[in-house]
Structures are given as C-alpha cells and as structure tokens.
Write a sequence for this structure.
C-alpha cells in the first residue's frame, strides 16, 4: 500500500528559523495531506494539496508537490517553540480510499 | 463543532478482560476510522466505516471488533488482547470516504495490556 517516506527523520532548529520536511511516495496520487501530532496526542490536519496543484500556502506553511518526482515538501517559516511536534505526510493513491501515513519527521524548535 | 471525542483517555487491561473504546463526532461525517499507533511510528489504519457499514478491514485480528451503532458513534471492542497490542488508538472522521479529504482526529486512547 502507498506510504510516504519522510526525510529527515528528526530535525532540530532554533526559533525563528525555517524548517523543511520532505516526503517521497511511490505511485500515482489523488492528493497529499500533511498532519501534525503533538506528543501522544491526536493528529491535526495542516494542509491538502491535490495532484494537479504544485504549491499551496496556509499561514506560515508552504507545501509543494512534484508529481514527476513523486515528492512533496513542507516548509514552516519563522518557526516557533509551539511548532515542536511530529509531522506526517499522507499521500492518497488513486486506487485507495483511505490515508496511509508516512514515517514522520520529529521537529524540535529550540526557544 | 469540529471535535472528535474519545473515551477513555487511558485504559489498562489484562489479557482476559473485555473492554470497549468509544469515539463520537457531531460534524455529520459519514466516514469514521480506527488507527493504531505505536511509539515513534506513524498511525496504522485498522478499520474504516462508511455510512455505518464496514468498508475496510486491514486484516486486523479478531480480538479487535469494531462497531458503528449510528452515524455519530464508533466503538472498538477489545477481547483477549496481547501485551503487544499496547498502543495509542486513534479515531478519526471525514465527510465521506469517497472524498478522502481532511480527517479529524480524536485525542486517542492510550491502551496498556498487562
């Protein structure tokens, strides 16, 4: 089944810096979603990008999608300590009707 | 109201116990999901209900038994679990399964099997 592979697995930055996380996947997708999870809590939907879109913004978040390379990136600008969390990509492949989550990136933002 | 609630927050059970996890949403969503998440791993899909009917079962052992009594409620009945079943169990909902857009997650139930 479809699963994203995320890179890096862990990222530590200072407050105010930008954080970039990458996701690669294997097959054709309908859309790709990004979720955040604070430690031991439920996931929160951040942004969805459809297969015919190349870039999308939401507040301090910027997501890109390159279907030719089967990859996506999530950029968080001007990071804050509150952004400390795990971030998961979830590519939805065209043959499947449920999300499969990638391995995740653990982001630590130092105040 | 964009909230999915789950009870209990924590559950400790022995291998011979029977317990149930509960999930509720009042957003009018017609698709509901159970996920299992081990520490430092991504959530893994267990079951999907669409319009109160079981749509996907990801080859989950029969000691996990889902139930969808109505469009707002989703239960997960647990029986004869193993210690390796200890995990965070997450419930989620979305508008409809044929439009897999935003999923709304509950805070999870932390299950410990002794």
């Amino acid at each position: 089944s479809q699963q994203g592979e995320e890179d890096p697995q862990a990222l530590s930055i200072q407050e105010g810096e930008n954080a970039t996380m990458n996701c690669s996947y294997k097959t054709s997708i309908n859309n790709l979603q990004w979720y955040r999870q604070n430690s031991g809590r439920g996931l929160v939907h951040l942004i969805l990008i459809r297969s015919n879109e190349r870039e999308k913004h939401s507040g301090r978040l910027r997501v890109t999608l390159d279907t030719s390379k089967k990859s996506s990136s999530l950029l968080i600008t001007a990071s804050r300590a509150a952004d400390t969390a795990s971030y998961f990509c979830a590519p939805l492949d065209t043959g499947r009707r449920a999300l499969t989550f990638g391995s995740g990136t653990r982001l630590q933002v130092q105040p | 109201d964009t909230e999915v609630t789950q009870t209990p927050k924590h559950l400790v059970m022995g291998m011979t116990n029977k317990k149930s996890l509960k999930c509720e949403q009042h957003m009018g969503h017609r698709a509901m999901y159970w996920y299992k998440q081990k520490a430092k791993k991504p959530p893994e899909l267990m079951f999907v209900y669409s319009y109160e009917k079981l749509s996907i079962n990801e080859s989950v052992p029969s000691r996990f038994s889902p139930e969808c009594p109505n469009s707002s409620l989703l239960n997960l009945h647990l029986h004869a679990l193993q210690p390796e079943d200890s995990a965070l169990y997450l419930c989620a909902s979305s508008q409809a399964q044929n439009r897999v857009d935003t999923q709304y997650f509950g805070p999870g139930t932390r299950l410990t099997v002794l």
Notes: The mean pLDDT of chain B is 93. Chain B touches chain A through 26 residues (CB under 8 Å). Chain B has no helices and eleven strands.
